[in-house]
Amino acid sequence: MGCTLLFIPFGLLDRRMTALLLPAVAFVLVYSLLPHKELRFIIYTFPVLSLVAARGCSFILCNYQKSLVYKLGSAVVVAHLLTNAAYSGVCLHVSHYNYPGGQGLQELHRLLPATTDVFVHIDTYAAETGVSRFLEQNENWRYDKREDLGPTSPEMKLYSHLLMEANVTRMELLRDSHQPLAFIEGYSNLAFNPLHFPPLSVRLERKTVLMERN
After folding, report:
1. Are residues 105 and 144 in the same domain?
2. Where are the transmembrane segments (predicted)?
């Protein structure tokens, strides 16, 4: 939504928008009572909020020639659209680095021939950051997502490969049976340097690791 929320009050100048907005606001308020909150619970209200805000933008632009205030408001509307476009572009670029689990599984497929006998364990962190059934490309490979195993579990030695969070402590506990094959970097934070172009850059850090049996 970005800056678009600022124009919702102007959209309400059209009374028809109130009938659209109230159910959406009520929906958000009801879900806000839940102890566990996620954006996906309320994302269904975004089209309604965008519609009301768009009506507000339309109201300002249609009255462009009436006064200096509307002229300034129209400039703000155009500026907010450009800001939203820039913000969306940054978010899209950053989101590319939010799936080190999925990238790790793709890297495993790239590094090893399809004919290799692979039995890979995927930990919870990797499964939550991009690993899905759609990435299980090789029918003869075995993919396991058991959640009841720890680094010291004897069953870990059965796996030819491990895709797991790049946690130094866990890696150290596995050093007798597995060694790092590849590290996958993911989003850490944003850095701003006005002396560079582009001034905004994404800082990465090791997020997941592929381990191979000794």
Report:
1. yes
2. 17-34, 41-61
